[in-house]
Amino acid sequence: MIFQPQLRIPGPAPLPERVVRAMSQPMIDHRGPEFAALLEEVVRGAKQVFGTQNDVIVMSSSGTGGLESAIVNLVTPGDRVLAAICGNFGERFAEMAAAYGAELIRHEVEWGQPVDPDDLRRLLASHPEVRLVLLTHNETSTGLTNDLEALVRVVREAGRLSVVDGVSSVSSMPVEVDRIGADVVVSGSQKGWMAPPGIAFAAVSQAAWEHSERSKGPRFYFDWAQHKKFAAKGATPWTPAVSVLFGVREGIRMLLEEGLDNAYARHRRCADAVAAGLQAMGFSLFAAEGYRSATVTAAVPQQDVDVKAYRKLLREKFGVVIAGGQGKLEGRLVRVGHLGYVTEGDMVQVLWGMEQALEELDIRANEGAGVSAAVASLNRAAVPA
Amino acid sequence: MIFQPQLRIPGPAPLPERVVRAMSQPMIDHRGPEFAALLEEVVRGAKQVFGTQNDVIVMSSSGTGGLESAIVNLVTPGDRVLAAICGNFGERFAEMAAAYGAELIRHEVEWGQPVDPDDLRRLLASHPEVRLVLLTHNETSTGLTNDLEALVRVVREAGRLSVVDGVSSVSSMPVEVDRIGADVVVSGSQKGWMAPPGIAFAAVSQAAWEHSERSKGPRFYFDWAQHKKFAAKGATPWTPAVSVLFGVREGIRMLLEEGLDNAYARHRRCADAVAAGLQAMGFSLFAAEGYRSATVTAAVPQQDVDVKAYRKLLREKFGVVIAGGQGKLEGRLVRVGHLGYVTEGDMVQVLWGMEQALEELDIRANEGAGVSAAVASLNRAAVPA
After folding, report:
1. Nearest C-alpha of chain B: how many angstroms from A112?
2. SS3 state of residue B66
3. Tens of pLDDT along A243-277?
4. Residue among B192, B176, B167 nearest B66 (CA)
5. What residue segments make up the domains of chain B, in order of their start?
6. Which of A139, A358, A369, B173 is at a distance of 20 to 30 A from A80, taking alpha carbons?
7. How big is the A-B interface in CB pairs under 8 Å?
């Protein structure tokens, strides 16, 4: 059987042909004028996507490296740091801060539930010594999107700095860094940016810069000040992942041509279609209603489903690659990514494959109900002209 | 005027068409079987290139990130570390160690001169508290290659650990990690590997692993233990630069098809041709004789040459991109890279352009003497059948 591969993990996301072709260029001097133009366009576009006039630092690493940059530039060993944790990535962010000497206050929320702004307000009131608050916008492990605007408002009103893992949200859903007043927001190229992995972004507010200048965390590769100094000359301090940046530039061009609001609406329509389809097939959604992510849907299958075997069958027979659960959810969840280069038709195809595979495993999947529910969801959604 | 671009900086190096095409592939799941096969082939090939059976860690970063990985995995803040410095990259390596809390013993050698093994032996004898010795194999800023085998022998005989910046040497000249007994050697994909920037390698000996397990340096993104744990499952701990790895795999295939010894000899022939040509044109070579690098030639031009204007003319009129001096050598040197995807014919073309550009600037360049000397050098060199 041949198939059109459907890479539907929550990143790396599939690459548009335009992006693949954009990477097919001769190598250039990373200190020359062509590179300066490349970096300038990427930074200018990234600022539009982040919705910010703050500096956007471009680093050659995965999103995890981008998050590490926030920790090493902001945390002085011994600092008390509040980490709001509602899944595996929040957990990782907290571990990273601890690795660099932060004394953590761990605010743990049941996985699948959002962080409550009122809880955060109370915690901050009882911990006046805390300067940094680590937040996860989109928790990829549970398919949940926190109300970032509300959480950042609480942090700002308490006079602290918000440090946001936006790795899998920025470019796929509105973040609007300047409007909501987030201090640091990090993202990664392999998510909604429609580019290959290898580039991380950090949007850094003036207050965060001032904090970083005072902070004594050890840093070199991820030192924002070095990046800022070289960016002023149209370069990066260390040799950047040039080919990946060619792809990032093209991905940003495509996003801006589509229009960010259109891209966000497309993600939402795909997410709603998947949610409807999976529920009709007998899955139950893992994330709390009202907080379901536009980029990844986490769902608990019917109890007879062996997640590992199901994913293998999907991959090998239908070309549909989805993710399983992470951390304590390993083996319990499937996660369908719908971010970046994703369309409504892809979702219909993916759900059809997921339905067929369930039937092959002799799991009753309401025969076609999943695809029908997805199509009905798409029919209800308003598609911009 | 149209031209065949000649990117002749000491990295990023030009990409073979095969490598560019190899990157033109759909994105894959970084936790799936295709990625496991990709990583396995890259690691197996990298071990051949390093000449080692030690673990080779594959990280998504520039070579500088690879060097940082050595520091954060091996240095406990307060450790006394000996840094042998003979140029800008040795300086950077030392600064990085200091940033992570090393108490440095700086062994500074005049730029352009090699590190003397006897000096190193004496220094180690008078500093029994030192465990780590930072060495630069190929000092890109001065066009000098240290006698790594002799230096590593001194370190080993003194019972210390050698930590080698091999960023711009490994894959272009023999390193033979196991034979010489180097503990840690780092390289970067954009050099002799004929691949784009974005991947760093670290070859790690058993003694270095044991040291890293005891060391208390803060680390997360570059934590070797995490990389080793995930490598056993055919994956990386964080999302890797997949497209770059497609290119790295193809570059390694090309290197092994050519044969490593042939590749090393090709680099040497190109270096010797450039050295002969530049000298005939009135440049003087910067690095001490007997230590001139196979991957980059640093040369001081005649005193009337404005290096910046010369490089600009070369780039814009002849498509020849060369580097200038770094650090305290800025404006004083030109540096011609000849590493990775480079052939003898490229060198003739580059020297012809360099000669023409000198004439355009009204600098007497012995009219054709540079190209003639390069051709004579190539005629003297034994080319394998």
Report:
1. 23
2. helix
3. 999 999 999 999 999 999 999 999 999 999 999 99
4. B167
5. 6-12+259-380, 17-257
6. A139
7. 184
